[in-house]
C-alpha cells in the first residue's frame, strides 16, 4: 500500500502523539491501516468539513444567478457578479467554491486509494461515503463551469479529473479539463460505486445509498435534453433512480403544516431530507451569523444584513393560485411555500397601527419600481394617493383585495391592498427565511442537497420527456397538492408540461441553489423583469457565454499544467 500524506480538517479521537511526526492536520497511511475504522472516522470528518466551506459559494452561485431573489442595490462584494452576470475570473467566492470542491475530491480520493474494500460493512460504507462526496463534487463543479449537457457535451469542456495524490508531486503535470461528457461520466461512476458500497442506515447528514440514487436521478435529468428535444435514454434513467429512492420507503413528504416549518427542523429529524450538510450554532459566534447564507436574506433577532428579498416574480408565482396574505390579522398561506417569506410590516410611529397601502409595480421610464400608496375609504370608494395624484381603485377581486388603477402614465397597474412594508432604499423587505432558523437559531442552516420533494419533481419531468404525461401528472400533483390544498392540475400534456413542471420546480426548490441551472439545462431564457438594480429587461439565453462561470484565475495560475479558461464572449 502506498505511503502518502493526506490533509484533514478534523481529527477527533486522535492524540497529538499520533501525528507529531507529520504536518499539522495530516496523517500517514500506515497509521490509518493499523486502525482503519478509527482513522477513517477522522478522515471522513475532514472530508465532510470541506463541504461546509464549499456550500456557501455553491448556494450563492446557483441562487443569485436566478430569478427568485433581488438585492436592494449594487454591492462591492464578489457575489454581486453572480447577480449582475458581470463575470470575471478574479472572484474570491469562485475560488472558494473551486478550492473547497477539489479539497473534498482530494480527501475522498485518498481515502479510496488507501483503504481496501471488503474488510467490514462499516468500512465499505465509509468508502462509499467518499465515492458519494467525490461524485457529487464533480457534478456540481461541472454544472457551474461546464455548459449545459444538451450543448455538445463531447467537445465542451468540463473540469479537470484529479483523483488523489500523484506519486510524483515534484514533477507534477496534470491533464487539462475533461469534456463535459467525461466529467459527467466520472460523477456517475463514483455515485454508482457509492450506491454499491453504502449499506448502512444513517441520519441524513451522512451519505447513504438513497443519497447517491437521488443525485444520480438529478444528474440523468440534467442529461435528458430539453422538452422539445429530449434524450429519452437518460430520462428513463432519471425515472429509474427516482424510483429507487421513492420505493425505498425511507423518506416521506412532510405534511403541509410541517413542511411550512421545514427550515426549523434539524436535518437528523426531518423525514423528507435525504442529504444535508450539517452546520451547528457554535460555528457562528456573535455577529458571524451575519455571514451565513440566510444573513443576506433577512435580519432576525438583530442578526443578518437583510439586503436580499423575494423577487416580485417569485411572489407573483406564489400568488398565482390565490393571494397569500402575510398580514398578522389575516394571515393565510394559499401556497405553503409562501411561509418561507416574511414581509417586514411596520406600524405608524404616531398611531401604533399598521398603515394601509395599495402596493403595485410601475414602469418608471424603463425601470420597474414598487409603489406603496396610502389608501383612504370614503362612501364605499377606495382611493390611493401618490404625491399630488389620487387614483380610484377598481375592484378585480374584492375578497382578496386585489385592485387596479389607471395611472398617470396611461397604463393600468394591478396591485393589492396591504400593510406598509418597511423599505430598504426603495424596496419593500420581503424577507426570505428558508435558509434560517434551524433549531430556531437565527440564521443557522444546514444546506439541503437532496430531499424527497425534488426526487418526485425529477421523476415528473423525466416522465414528461418520455411522453408519459399521466405518470408525470401524478408526481407533479404530489408536490403541488401538498403546497396548495385542492390545487392539483387536472391534466398535463405536451402543450403545458414544460411550463407547469418548471414552475413547480421554481416554487418548490427556491433558495436551494437550483433555479439558474434548471432554466439553462432546458434551453430556456432567464427573464428578470421585476424591481431591483439588475438589468431588468435583459434576457439571458441558455447559449450566452455568461451562463457558466470563469475558471478562477488563481486556479489557473497555480495549476501544474494547462487549465483552459472558459470563453469570454
From TrEMBL:
Keywords on this record? Cell outer membrane, Membrane, Signal
Domain SusD-like N-terminal, by residue range, is 30-221
Tell me where on the tree of life, at the top rank, the source sits: Bacteria
Q: Where in the cell is it found?
A: Cell outer membrane
Quote the Pfam families the UniProt record gives: SusD-like_3, SusD_RagB
According to its UniProt record, which protein family does this protein belong to? Belongs to the SusD family.
Domain RagB/SusD, by residue range, is 433-567
Instruction: Give the organism's phylogenetic lineage.
Output: Bacteria, Pseudomonadati, Bacteroidota, Flavobacteriia, Flavobacteriales
Is Membrane among this UniProt entry's keywords?
yes
Q: What is this protein called?
A: Membrane protein
Name the InterPro entries on file. Answer: SusD-like_N, SusD_RagB_dom, TPR-like_helical_dom_sf
Annotated GO CC locations: cell outer membrane
